[in-house]
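Technical appendix A lists one of the benchmark inputs used to test multi-chain prediction within the project. The record comprises two sequence entries:
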Amino acid sequence: RAPKPSAQDVSLGVDWLTRYGYLPPPHPAQAQLQSPEKLRDAIKVMQRFAGLPETGRMDPGTVATMHKPRCSLPDVLGVAGLVRRRRR
Amino acid sequence: YALSGSMWKKRTLTWRVRSFPQSSQLSQETVRVLMSYALMAWGMESGLTFHEVDSPQGQEPDILIDFARAFHQDSYPFDGLGGTLAHAFFPGEHPISGDTHFDDEETWTFGSKDGEGTDLFAVAVHEFGHALGLGHSSAPNSIMRPFYQGPVGDPDKYRLSQDDRDGLQQLYGKAPQTPYDKPTRKPLAPPPQPPASPTHSPSFPIPDRCEGNFDAIANIRGETFFFKGPWFWRLQPSGQLVSPRPARLHRFWEGLPAQVRVVQAAYARHRDGRILLFSGPQFWVFQDRQLEGGARPLTELGLPPGEEVDAVFSWPQNGKTYLVRGRQYWRYDEAAARPDPGYPRDLSLWEGAPPSPDDVTVSNAGDTYFFKGAHYWRFPKNSIKTEPDAPQPMGPNWLDCPAPSSGPRAPRLPKA
């Protein structure tokens, strides 16, 4: 079995996945916990987008990819679009 | 590819670099030129044109480019070296739409051989994709992949991947096609200087093509190449310069040793299409742009040891190669792969030709042209006697230069 990802990696992952549109942004008025299923799905989408094996886990390849230099804009624009519609 | 959902309604967009990197080795001029090439990469595949504008008089340009640090008044603060590199805003009516920001704390490079730093051209092409309405792509070859993938090569030759072209053309349609059904690059106005790569940039100012005095001129696959120092220009068969800006010798002719700073003569070998560049007592053979083997001595072509050449050309009338030095010339038989006996002979056989020509080449129509200084001598097809009105000024007829002012005409050489 692959080693369990550290809490730091999970935290990085959630932050990264949110910033680049794979997870919805936290609601400003309430604390939000990501369910393990949603997190796994978001990681899988990210891995598919980046051409990585779709493990759904914060494996070393995924963590390394999250550390790569990149463009600031989100990869998944739909989340941002949903947010705009909700705000309207 | 992915579309952002917005696009420009107009087809001509303006741009300006408002702030430049503070600590980069790249000059402001190089940054501007890289930006223009990055925009051109998108423009040549679509109906879009881009104009650089100067000062912020009146309206700001559509694409305003900044190098910024940390928080810089938008929702995407930069994070120092590494991490996020740049971003751009999708098209729209808002003043920030189309604006493109680069993290000033990155080590921006161009043409870095050691892989250090971040290639500004590659990132600029990516960001301008956003500024035109594209989102991130997961296609392996796409420049719109979100992760930095390293340099993408020579800006002058860069072409977008099919995925990127498809996305762009979905928004703006295809570029108008030329008679040759090939995309063309048009120089931006005002024409920027060519990018200077760190390895070749030091001390070679760009020469003025209108002055003539080329080191070598050759017809290579229908295009005429004009060599001068470590630069060259290309004239298309239509009579149009590929660009008024010269290209760098060593960035195009891959494998040409760096110490070769001048090409004294060049020609395309008739029998196999190889291109031969001559410098000093040696020559180099290229297939397309790639060097084959190493330096070869001119003695292989029948010249005495240590001899150099002023001009080399292949005469289609007999398929032989002529090598000119001063007032004499040698003839080489390509089919037999040996020099013809009885040479050198006096160049006066070519009636009216100047001695020590800069170079000689044969046009697509089969006429032979001797070049020297700012003039040329035309020998009609099958003739070894120059036209009576020779020499003529090169600039207006070949290089899109103004006609020389009325002054004393170039002295005619005495006929042999």
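The helical segments of chain A are 7-19, 36-50, 60-66, 77-87. Confidence is low (pLDDT under 50) at residues 79-88 of chain A. Comparable benchmark entries are summarised in Table A2.
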